[in-house]
Amino acid sequence: MDAQVSRPTLAKIATRNTGYATQPPLQRFLTSCYEEFKSDDSGTVADYIPELKRADPAHFGVALVTIDGHVYEVGDSAVPFTIQSVSKAFVFALALDLVGEERVSAAIGVEPSGEAFNSIRLTNDNRPFNPMVNAGAIACSGLIHQAAGGSAFECIREKLSLFAGRDLDVDDAVHASEALTGNRNRAIAWLLRNYLVLQDDVDAVLDTYFRQCAILVTARDLAVMAGTLANRGVNPVTGIQVITPNIVARTLSVMTSSGMYDYAGEWIYRVGIPAKSGVGGGIVAALPSQIGLGTFSPCLDSHGNSVRGLKVCEALSSRFDLHMLNRSADVRTCIIADYDIYGISSRRSRQPQEQQILDERHSDIRVIELVGALNFAAIDYVTRRLSGEPPNAPLLILDFRRVPDLTAAGAQLLGENLTILGNAGVTSIMTGLEATSMVWTAVCARAAEPQRLRRFALLDDAIEWAEDQIIYRYGGFTTQKETIHLGEQALLADLAADEIAALAELSTTRRYEAGQRIISVGEPANSLFFLQSGMVSVKLPSGVRLASLGPGMEFGEMAIIENKRSADVWADTPVKCLELPLDAFADYRQLHPQIAMKIMRNLSALLARRLILANAKVDLLSAY
Q1: What's the CA gap between 7 and 36, in Å, rounded?
Q2: Alpha carbon distance 484, 502 (integer Å)
């Protein structure tokens, strides 16, 4: 922070602002900045455009937009003013979008000029130095006019309105004042026309330029516009993709080097956030993937930048360490868990012979759970983990449910790595993704054979599928019985044949079609079921699967210890089972207390195994 910028005295401000103590920290900070800097009346209002002299020097507004669309505002954030040179960044983006980078680069450079914004000077090859000075901005307007003709200004106004998230108007008085007194800009325009940088009617191009500078915005508008750049071209408030990420990168690059005129070097040294200022008193600053900032205060310093706006930007960057070159990140944190399935099976209950295969071949399935936005460096770390120790399992599951974004560079690396693994015989499975997911689309576009990739929305479904592959490869399904005798039920283990026969006499055979609900959550728990054939799933009302069960397993057994059903049970396939009413079972327990004790011990063992599995998953995540 500049030595002249003191940290606001929060205690004093708190006494003057109702509800201050309950404000979020960032709102409190912006409020404190507003209170601290509003008394700074240094600088002067721009007067080279007569109409700008009418601005109230006391006006001061600040707004900040996060990339999830939350807006912080303080002071005169809703007061309209003309956008002036702040428009240059967004019109440059429009020119790139409308006529392409090649044509823009042929007409306009991207080097800092080191001179005032209205300098009448071109590069050695007779191009404007960059699009952030008047010469470059007029050239941008000329390119758009060349492409759109008489509708050039409307094209600009509509695009800037999309950036702001609302329909923007023009201050006709300021436009007329600029047109009347803009002789220096006319000189620049005719110089450009002389070197064929401008190829259309000079007066028509200048009128487009003067009008774009007279578009009315507020500090809030500027914050949303900056937020759109920070959010890779997507307006964080409206959700509309205004411009492509590629154009955003080029726009922010020029804003970084030249957006603050001949103060640009000092700005990037002190503040370190891509920004653009205007003589109307506005400053727009966009920190990629984090925030957009808009300030308004018409008193300018000798460079043409808002005095109070500069102080807010410096204070914000210093207080929260937002300089874009002062970043810290540990790529190792992108992997939250890396494990095989030993003790961490899917929710599908397995037959003993199937479980034995999984216990013996547990290392054949490797699960890596990823977290956070993944960039080039993070994916490089993941690929090195995959090529290191332990050696790759034949089935690899990459879980993306905690990954909000994957950069193009990261997708490229990952796609190439999955191709290499596929050629080595590894089946790659991506989870936590829908078919329309940008991450899934990006990886598939970069994998040599995307049809070899598997995708599941849920990690548990992927683990179950991988388990099925292992069981099938090692002969586990070939000996599976279609129907299981009651004596093979885990809940009835250690019961004698006559004891089981007695229970069978109390039970009724039930059959259900695939897709039929067998048990409904909330209904009285008055029976338990022994599954003899088919598959069922135990699910919460939300649809989350708790378990999948096959022949030889029981469901509804919690009825022994609870009064109401706590989950739904659905038939996944045609199902045959025996239903044992609890009242009949209660009579049986009174007649055969020792048998009842065996059943309760078996139930306790089943519940204990489930608890051990759940704890193993918790321990796994807490270890990272």
Answers
A1: 8
A2: 17
Contact 391, 497 (CB under 8 A): no
Residue 9 pLDDT: 45
- How many residues are given for the chain? 624
**All residues at 6 or more sequence positions from 207 whose CB lies less than 8 Å from its CB, including other chains:** 153, 179
Question: What stretch of H or E contains 512?
Answer: strand 508-512
Among candidates 524, 510, 494, which has minimal Cα distance to 596? 494
Q: pLDDT of 371-387, one tens digit each?
A: 998 999 999 999 999 88
φ and ψ at residue 512, rounded to 5 degrees: -135, 145
Name which of 150, 152, 151 is nearest 140 in CA terms: 152
- Indicate the range of 145-154, 399-408, 593-602 predicted with least confidence: 593-602
Q: Is 34 in contact with 77 (CB distance < 8 Å)?
A: no
Quick one: CA torsion of 298, 303, 305, 310, rounded to 10 degrees?
A: -120
- b/e for 400-425, b at 16 or more Cβ within 10 A? beebeebbeebbbbbbebbbebbeee
pLDDT of residue 125 exceeding 70, the answer is yes
Between the CA of residue 93 and those of 219, 235, 288, 513, what are the distances in Å?
20, 14, 16, 59
* Radius of gyration, CA atoms only, the chain: 34
DSSP helix/strand/coil, 339? strand
Identify the pLDDT of residue 612.
Answer: 62
* Residue closest to 309 by CA, chosen among 44, 55, 52, 37: 37
Q: How confident is the model at residue 482 (pLDDT cuts 50, 70, 90)?
A: low
What end-to-end distance do the CA atoms of the chain give, in Å?
37
CB atoms within 10 A of CB 587: 12
**Looking at residue 76, what is its pLDDT?**
97
Residue 368 pLDDT: 94
Letter for the amino acid at 520? S
Rounded Cα distance, 614 and 428, in Å:
25
CA quadruple 222, 224, 226, 229: dihedral positive or negative? Answer: negative
Strand, coil or helix: 158:
helix
Contact 459, 399 (CB under 8 A): yes
* Strands 427-431 vs 554-555: parallel, antiparallel or unpaired: unpaired
